[in-house]
Design brief:
This protein is an alpha/beta fold. It has helices at residues 7-10, 25-37, 49-57, 59-67, 76-85, 95-109, 122-133, 152-162, 175-183, 198-202, 211-215, 219-226, 231-234, 237-245; strands spanning 12-15, 18-21, 42-47, 70-73, 112-117, 138-143, 166-170, 191-194. It has one domain. Helix 7 (122-133) links the parallel strand 5 (112-117) and strand 6 (138-143). The protein binds uridine-5'-diphosphate.
């Protein structure tokens, strides 16, 4: 993969309160590869419109986003807002596609992945599917995301035994971002990514939207119809739209 990146191009631009990096998928992969080799820890955030709304009232979440090493535009809503407020952002880098690309490049790049989150069995199944689809992918472990506080240390110990380069955490926004920020310093991994419903999709438990919905960029609507529990997220959309149309935008961090 040959990707030319300039630091200026990777500089974050503000979409509402969120500093989003203008990275394409290939640039994000190069950046994450560099994080793995850096010897330091990095949090990566895949930002969607619900996060933009939540971060307005949630200072803890906002601080975490501000301090993240990379923030990718995950959703159609963020792309729409970016288009109105900051034309520099042109490529969408969703959590599902980012994780799948990381699995795909894992064998050539040599980095390993651990999947933490989703209902029991789902992360393991997603790992198995990725290992089948991308032979040589280093899927070093999986654990569900419904453990008690009393099991926390045991989960961390399981991750630390295999020392993954990349820990993908799927517990929903903002829980996963806060979980990573609270525990990353006790975990032997280099890169931590909050990936929402990614394992449900990669495991095949939740089907991707039909092509028509994908083409119309209405995959989110399909997921709500398929899972009414997600209605809470949809309720944030009107506020998101209002925030965008009343925002002046065009700031840089
Ligand atoms: N989840 C979890 N632990 C929890 C709550 C949720 O592992 O305590 C999982 C849930 O099973 C699902 C994912 O987190 O796989 C959240 O997916 P969703 O698409 O709702 O995430 P978001 O839209 O917030 O990115």
């Amino acid at each position: 993969m040959t990707v030319i990146t300039s630091d200026a191009h990777m500089q974050p631009v503000k979409v509402l309160d969120i500093p989003v990096n203008c990275a394409s998928m290939d640039e994000a992969l190069v950046k994450i590869g560099a994080f793995v080799s850096s010897g330091e820890q990095h949090q990566v955030i895949t930002a969607d419109s619900s996060m933009a709304v939540m971060s307005r009232d949630d200072i803890e979440l906002r601080n975490i986003i501000e301090q993240a090493s990379l923030v990718t535009p995950d959703s159609v809503g963020i792309m729409w807002a970016a288009h109105r407020l900051n034309p520099a952002i042109t490529a969408r880098v969703s959590g599902v596609e980012l994780v799948e690309e990381l699995c795909k490049h894992s064998s050539q790049q040599g980095y390993s992945l651990f999947f933490l989150g989703a209902a029991p069995g789902i992360a393991q199944l997603a790992c198995e599917k990725m290992a089948q689809r991308y032979p040589g992918a280093k899927m070093v472990g999986a654990h569900h995301g419904y453990f008690n506080v009393s099991d926390l240390q045991s989960v961390i110990d399981q991750i630390n035994v295999v020392k993954p380069d990349i820990l993908c955490v799927a517990m929903g926004i903002p829980r996963q971002e806060k979980w990573i920020a609270a525990h990353m310093h006790n975990i032997r991994a280099a890169v931590f990514i909050g990936v929402g419903g990614t394992f449900d999709v990669l495991s095949g438990t939740v089907k991707r939207a039909p092509k028509l919905f994908q083409r119309m960029k209405l995959e989110w609507l399909w997921r709500v119809l398929a899972n009414p529990k997600k209605i809470g997220k949809v309720m944030l959309l009107p506020r998101f739209v209002w925030m965008v149309i009343t925002s002046k935008g065009r700031g840089t961090r």
